[in-house]
Design goal:
Layout: H1 9-15, E1 20-25, H2 37-41, E2 46-50, H3 69-82, E3 87-90, H4 105-117, E4 122-126, H5 131-140, E5 145-152, H6 162-174, E6 177-183, H7 189-203, E7 208-213, H8 218-223, E8 226-228, H9 245-254, E9 261-266, H10 269-285, E10 290-295, E11 305-307, H11 314-329, H12 363-372, H13 374-389, H14 393-398, H15 406-438, H16 441-459, H17 465-493, H18 499-527, H19 534-541, H20 544-555, H21 561-566, H22 570-581, H23 588-609, H24 613-620, H25 623-640, H26 644-657, H27 663-692, H28 694-719, H29 730-747, H30 753-757, H31 763-777, H32 786-804, H33 816-821, H34 826-852
Parallel strand pairs: 1-2, 1-8, 2-3, 3-4, 4-5, 5-6, 6-7, 9-10, 9-11
Length: 863
């Protein structure tokens, strides 16, 4: 990224007729600015370090403040490490409106010499200091430029007075830069000041900073070649009447000094939109009047354009925006010395968020997500293998099912599956207590142990269906609990920029585990004799792998920082964040992340503590929460009623019903089904979800799934394949294709979007209800309604999505309340939310800018 700053930026800008903006930092400890330093300095040229305000944490700054040499040196080094902007080192004494003692000349001299030795670009020196002190500074200043300053707070010194002329002469004889600040009792003083500046430029070439303090002097701050400006994120302005950079630019535009900047962005649509939005965000931050147009191709009528045709990566876009901003505004774009940070302004959403270092996106956070996702592996493998395993000849023989009727076998299959789902139901209900009491890591690790215990019971059954049911209930208990813990644990550890990707690992592991479950059944059926118990024991025993991996890998992971902070263990949370983020504990990003979590928890505690239980229950049924809850529950319920669990658990039987007889053929078709669904899911997650959005994906996916399910229903009804073996004709082959088509369309809609849309809804409740309904359908009497039931469920889902599910892409979590508070259907909610959020952001910007002029006036010092 281009940087135009240099140590002589004031001289360079002054000679070229450009304004120079100095940003006073009024923090008592400069580390408080680490998380926001890039944002504060955006568009500025020089930092002013107000040394007289510096004080170590825990020390209260009184009317007089004398910081130590050691502490000031640490602060200088910290600021130099945080930003590449040059620094103006300022000590403002009590008589000049600051905090430094008037009688501490020796200490002031020591601090000035420290600044010079530290390579500071500019030092502010009061011309009323003792002559011997001024002489020593000049002799030892080296390449440091001296700003000779004079301040008057009486309101009695005019710009044509003899006293001012004397002070001006002294400053001119002593300093490289002259600074004169006088309290303006009336707005007419700005006129006298403008005449003074005009006459000065005719005779002198030194840079001059001359401003009127107070509200009546604000016009001088707008027009001065060198101006001190504040920022809403700075604790308080360093002087009364000080404006923000955005306010200065807006005022200059109003008086005709700053023309509107017109920029045209041309190139591919997906790139031009991102670049133009980021560029406009940069313009708006600094109050630049602008017009930004977007073209998909070259426009012959445009004389100045930003061509982004070849851009694709984020870093290239950032560079393009930064260079365009410099080109069209003439303003530098400062950045941190740390090369791994991106200015948060170039991120359109949540511009106040801390720009994350690249080291945050390291292998440890991915390893953490993969480790936790062994919980989804337990779920994925179990849902895939059980339906095929109980149809194996060895399983039927061991459990005495060879002579049972089709209805009896169907009932047994339904019971085994539903026992697992019942365990899931209670696991999902009970887990919340344990995650609040013991954290996320220990309960998740315990799920692996409980799951393995259930597997051992199943392996020990040897013909005892009671042990099978008991083992299935325990594994269901573990899966139900882990299915809720895993997304929560990953989300609490995920940096915002890759949260979707990390939670996506949960779904990817689940899909891959299902493929393994499908193909294990095919393999044992092909290569192990049906008379050997190994044929059914191997698929059952492989459940131990994900359960054991979950236990071992979670032993290596750290507890959630959110839970630790909530339970008063901030130091431990910071240590865990430092390890996973690969940053030192004192790094600004670690501290910011911990502070953010703490602030969120504090807000939640305040809201929760102030409301009795019945009021909290009533809160659930307010429109903004009721609508969200009903849509979310509907999506999770209909996800399970869409037929996917039936295809997972009963796919061999289903494939037989459409003409593919034989255990081996059914298992082979089931394995292909798993591969198709997994591949479609991964491709959609990588390439489709960000382009289509959630709502459009659900509509497209539901439409395709409906066609597939209704064809399967029509085929099985007309062919009677559930009652008698079907002929493997063209209709049967089309039916197989429809199963795979359903897998593809389900993958781009119902497979993952409901989980993202309502992560806090218990999906296993819907799963249990689904399986009881499935049992009643699959009792040997209602087969013909099997696929039409699933198709009709998806039709209901499509209607709900179209009417009631608004597009949530691009909205922050805080903005969801606005989205769901708006009355009307989904499209109305989205449009209304966009308008409301736009109005809210504009209002917030106005409030933030107006805040600066009135904030902390009791702490004001001089410019």
């Amino acid at each position: 990224m281009s940087q135009l700053q240099s140590k002589d930026i004031i001289f360079s800008n002054y000679g070229n007729g450009k304004q120079t903006f100095i940003i006073p930092l009024t923090f008592t400890d400069i580390s408080d600015a680490k998380g926001i330093i890039t944002r504060i300095g955006y568009g500025g040229d020089v930092w002013e370090l107000r040394v007289d305000l510096l004080s170590p944490p825990g020390n209260e700054v009184g009317d007089v403040n004398l910081p130590s040499l050691v502490y000031v040196k640490e602060q200088v080094e910290a600021l130099q490490a945080m930003s590449s902007l040059p620094i103006l080192f300022t000590i403002r004494t009590k008589s000049q409106g600051g905090k430094f003692p008037d009688d501490a000349s020796k200490e002031a001299l020591d601090l000035i010499l420290l600044a010079i030795a530290s390579g500071i670009s500019y030092v502010d020196v009061e011309i009323d200091w003792p002559p011997a002190m001024l002489k020593e500074i000049m002799e030892k200043r080296g390449s440091t430029k001296v700003v000779a300053s004079y301040h008057s707070w009486t309101g009695k010194v005019g710009w044509t007075s003899e006293e001012l002329m004397q002070k001006f002469a002294a400053a001119d004889a002593f300093g490289d830069i002259i600074k004169l600040s006088i309290l303006s009792p009336t707005i007419e003083d700005c006129y006298e000041l403008s005449l003074f500046v005009r006459d000065y430029k005719l005779k002198y070439s030194k840079p001059l900073l001359a401003v009127g303090m107070g509200a009546n002097g604000q016009l001088s701050r707008i027009t001065s070649p060198i101006s001190l400006v504040t920022h809403p994120l700075i604790p308080f302005p360093s002087a009364p009447g000080q404006l923000t950079l955005a306010q200065v630019h807006q005022a200059r535009h109003l008086i005709g000094q700053l023309p509107k900047q017109e920029v045209s962005v041309v190139g591919k649509e997906n790139v031009t939109q991102k670049v133009s939005h980021a560029l406009q965000a940069a313009f708006l931050e600094l109050g630049y009047p602008h017009l930004c147009s977007v073209y998909k191709g070259k426009n012959g009528n445009v004389t100045s354009e930003l061509d982004v045709t070849g851009l694709g990566s984020t870093s290239s876009m950032v560079t393009a925006v930064a260079e365009a901003f410099v080109q069209y505004t003439g303003r530098p774009v400062p950045c941190s010395n740390s090369q791994d940070r991106m200015p948060s302004l170039l991120k359109i959403k949540d511009s106040s968020a801390f720009p994350a270092p690249k080291s945050v996106y390291n292998w440890r956070v991915y390893a953490l997500a993969i480790s936790a996702s062994m919980g989804s592996s337990m779920f994925g493998y179990d849902s895939a293998f059980i339906g095929g395993t109980i149809t194996l000849p060895s399983f039927k023989s061991r459990f005495g099912l060879d002579s049972d009727s089709k209805e009896a076998l169907a009932s047994l299959s339904a019971n085994i599956v539903s026992t697992f789902q019942a365990g899931c139901f209670f696991g999902a209900i009970l887990v919340s207590y344990f995650t609040e009491k013991f954290g996320r890591r220990i309960p998740l690790l315990s799920c692996g142990i409980l799951f393995n215990l259930g597997v051992v019971l199943q392996l020990a059954s040897s013909g005892n269906l009671g042990l099978i049911y008991g083992g299935r209930a325990l594994t269901g208990l573990a899966v139900g609990a882990s299915s809720l813990i895993v997304p929560q644990y990953i989300a609490e550890w995920s940096p915002p920029a890759i949260r979707g990707r990390l939670i996506g690992i949960f779904e990817m592991v689940l899909q891959l585990s299902q493929i393994i479950g499908f193909w294990v059944n095919y393999g044992v059926n092909e290569h192990i004799s049906g008379s050997s118990d190994a044929q059914w024991r191997i698929p059952f025993s492989l459940q131990l792998i994900p359960g054991t991996l979950l236990v071992i890998l979670m032993l290596l992971q750290r507890e959630s920082p959110r839970w630790l902070i909530k339970n008063g263990q901030r130091a431990k949370a910071i240590d865990n964040l430092s390890f996973v983020r690969k940053l030192p504990v004192e790094d600004a990003y670690i501290q910011w992340e911990a502070d953010t979590i703490e602030e969120q928890l504090r807000h939640e505690a305040e809201v929760g503590a102030s409301q009795p239980f019945l009021v909290k229950i009533k809160e659930v049924f307010l429109p903004r929460n009721r609508n969200r809850l009903l849509v979310g529950m509907s999506l999770m319920m209909l996800q399970n009623l869409s037929g996917i669990n039936a295809l997972n658990y009963y796919s061999p039987t289903i494939f037989k019903s459409i003409g593919f007889s034989g255990t081996s053929v059914g298992l082979l078709a089931t394995g292909v089904f798993g591969i198709v669904k997994c591949t479609a899911t991964i491709l959609f997650m990588v390439f489709g979800i960000d382009r289509l959005g959630r709502r459009k994906s659900m509509i497209i996916g539901s439409s395709g799934a409906i066609v597939a399910m209704y064809y399967l229903g029509a085929y099985t009804k007309l062919s009677g394949s559930f009652e008698t073996p079907a002929t493997r004709d063209a209709g049967a082959y089309i039916a197989i294709v429809m199963v795979y088509i359903f897998a593809v369309f389900y993958a781009i809609s119902w497979n993952g979007i409901p989980w993202v849309f309502c992560a806090e809804v218990f999906p296993t409740v819907a799963g249990a209800v689904h399986n009881y309904l499935l049992d009643s359908l699959y009792d040997g009497k209602h087969h013909v309604w099997y696929f039409p039931f699933f198709g009709s469920s998806v039709v209901c889902g499509l209607i709900i999505v179209y009417l009631f599910m608004p597009e949530t892409k691009g909205f922050s979590l805080e903005e969801m309340d606005i989205l769901f508070s708006i009355r009307g259907f989904a499209l109305d909610k989205r449009r209304g939310a966009e308008r409301a959020i736009a109005d809210q952001r504009a209002a917030e910007q106005t409030v933030v800018e107006n805040k600066v002029g009135t904030q902390h006036m009791e702490n004001t010092a001089s410019v």
